[in-house]
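QA checklist item 7 of 12: single-chain prediction sanity check.
[x] sequence parsed
[x] length recorded as 729
[x] structure emitted
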Amino acid sequence: PSIPRHTNRLINEKSPYLLQHAHNPVDWYPWGQEAFDKAKKENKLIFLSVGYSTCHWCHVMEEESFKNKEIGEIMSKNFVCIKVDREERPDVDKVYMTFVQATSGGGGWPMSVWLTPDLKPFAGGTYFPPEDGVHRVGFRTVLLRIAEQENKDSLLESSRKILEALQHVSEIRVRGQESPPPSKEVMTTCFQQLSNSYDEDYGGFSKSPKFPTPVNLSFLFTYWALHRTTPEGAQALQMALHTLKMMAHGGIHDHISQGFHRYSTDQHWHVPHFEKMLYDQGQLAAMYSRAFQISGDQFFADVAQDILLYVSRDLSDQAGGFYSAEDADSYPTTASEEKQEGAFCVWAAEEIRALLPDPVEGATEGTTLGDVFMHHYGVKETGNVSPMQDPHQELKGKNVLIVRCSPEVTAAQFGLEPGRLGALLQEGRQRLSAARAQRPRPHLDTKMLAAWNGLMISGFAQAGMALAKQEYVSRAAQAAAFLRRHLFDPTSGRLLRSCYRGRDNTVEQSAVPIQGFLEDYVFVIQALFDLYEASLEQDWLEWALQLQHMQDKLFWDFKGFAYFSSEAGDPSLLLRLKGDQDGAEPTANSITVTNLLRAACYSGHMEWVEKAGQILAAFSERLQKIPITLPEMARATAVFHHTLKQVIICGDPQGEDTKEMLRCVHSVFSPNKVLLLADGDSAGFLYRQLPFLASLERKDGKATAYVCSNFACSLPVTSPQELRGMLCP
């Protein structure tokens, strides 16, 4: 690469996204006091640009506008220009996205917002083309119009009004003496709303674009578990399993390098946006594991293992943490000048023919491995991507692999015995994988976030339990130890948001570390509870409960209930918001309801149960009217209502009889169970927290299970079969 012509102060940042813009001919500042002071001192308006490093349209706007010298000059002369990585600062992103959505009717990234010197927004949008077009005003024009606006006072006035309205609209709080909404109605309404939007042919909950949205699947599994014997229960399970199956067959699933892309641009899960996000892999690993746990179908276990293979190989830092994402765009060949979306993942038919020329024994005369592979994965000579899905003609003549028929149908097509197909397809995938390894890789965002690492630890821990694979539990523990070492400050007891892969593969921290947000605490606490159940190491439990106390202290809203997304006391944040939507990731208040109920079971602190009820009360109106926007919280209303069962195994952790009982608990999906091991160590953490454990005994010296709720316990059982019966009423 040639020596860059320009370098701005983003060169001193750690975020891969900010570093991508360090050589723009723009006088960029990171979000912080230096930029705010300059705006005030020079009485200059601020241009705020927010994005993330694997965002396709962020790259496009950078290429077209931020790398353009003239546009860069207009920006730097008239505005204080600030760049924010939304993954580092979700709090800043959320405040201004709320404004953009309210004023333009849409939102997304890159987000472009103009602010007054005291950070109040007055104009905004998302992607702007550089010059005026037929339908859209160009970025240059917008910059000049705002810079030339004489009447700054009217801007300020309208900005003040908008902010007041936003503050009012975005307030989620308890009004009067509200109690939690009735769980049965919330669950029923949510199920009806999901089944109304369900696509019976291809699975999923919209026509296009289609997102994996694991929160919907998680809700459906819980709905099934509470209504197993009803037609609605059976339908909920069918919807979840069919969606997971269609996604795994689709092009959104990377059949060659494993893992899942972020979303599909079409109804069939075929042509994706090719970036791969850590939070999707973590949640989907958990959902495919759960699907296996419930159905016993090995297909789902294989997909879960496939996701965890991808993460272990491509998103893992040698110190134990997980990276954030892989980009969609890459150079098609080492000689290419321009990156293209999906270049790393797509195939021309002749490439596949050249890689798989071998004749297949026992098949119809003249059949090659390429013929079988191309038939099975829907490969066409002219490419299998419809022009509708490819507005920039980047995928012309290319194929995105998608399983088009069952193994039986493919085998029959070529006169093969069905049993032989698996090995042939695997051989084909391995050769394509080796060929792909020669291509330039997409950019890897090596930032490590506490929240997303939490989701991934849960994925490994839940797969470890459901698939009975100890190596997954060990990987989860390694990542939790990484969090404790690099994203936790033992002196203050607080989590940090992010750390980074530095030079020589060391783990680095910013000069001023970003403190953890609500979602960091919530997803990490959930991960530690999952890891305790998988490993039965009490240290993780102890740390989780410490973090829960800290979360209460930093984020709880004493007046209106529920937790704020960010801490109080940051003067640069105009609003303290509460997330109100379970989307690609669940919102933190949704997950925290179940966390609080689990925390109470492990500690006996009943005020946590009360807090869980207060959160549900604060969101009551939304849960009763449009629970489809909060499926994870709707699910939590049922867990709250049905009371968690403590499944307590009294036994020697090393004993075979104890292990057998634990395997039984791990193999059953029960949404309202919490697992504890009473190992007889009365000085240990759990016995100190829950004195009643001391009264539970091993029957006839054997590992014994008790199922307790509200501090009343069932009769003891010593056989896994009896225990299974109690867990699956």
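[x] summary fact logged: The longest strand covers residues 45-51.
[ ] second reviewer sign-off
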